[in-house]
Design brief:
Layout (H helix, E strand, L loop, with lengths): L5 E5 L6 E5 L1 H13 L1 E4 L11 E3 L1 E6 L6 E5 L2 E6 L1 H17 L6 E4 L15 E5 L6
Parallel strand pairs: 2-9, 5-7
Antiparallel strand pairs: 1-2, 1-4, 3-5, 6-7, 8-9
């Protein structure tokens, strides 16, 4: 069991970011997405199969623009305009509400013409951990 509701890991070779948490943690993530700001992430003892754990989530709301997910050292940075960020937040909330199997996860990947992700945005996987859910 984790000591906090949300944690993240990063794969340097693929650029993929995984954010996992309890339902409450995922709902907190959606709230931070909508309001902007920083959120401390739970420590991860062993980030395998990823390369490293991330320590902080930072959401920067811009006047406009699509969502860009990136990593800067141990910080998961998500930035974009309010409309695009709101769509991402809705996706996270919907996943948190519907997840019923710890193997379920949500892939959020850029493709040409994506309506809310910016080109160059890191692939994002959102997961649910039932071992820490209450």
């Amino acid at each position: 069991m984790r000591n906090a509701a949300l944690w993240a890991r990063y794969a340097e070779t693929t650029g993929e970011v995984e954010v996992s948490g309890t339902r409450a943690g995922l709902l907190a993530l959606a709230g931070v997405l909508r309001g902007g700001g920083d959120l401390a992430l739970a420590p991860v003892a062993d980030p395998a199969p990823y390369d490293r754990a991330l320590a902080r989530l930072r959401v920067r709301l811009r006047e406009a623009g699509r969502v860009r997910v990136s990593v800067d050292d141990t910080i998961l940075l998500i930035e974009g305009g309010p409309g695009s960020i709101a769509v991402l937040a809705e996706n996270v909330e919907g996943f948190a509400a519907e997840a019923d199997d710890p193997r379920h996860h949500l892939h959020i990947d850029y493709f040409p013409g994506h309506f809310y992700l910016a080109e160059g945005s890191a692939p994002l996987v959102v997961g649910w951990d039932t071992s820490a859910d209450t």
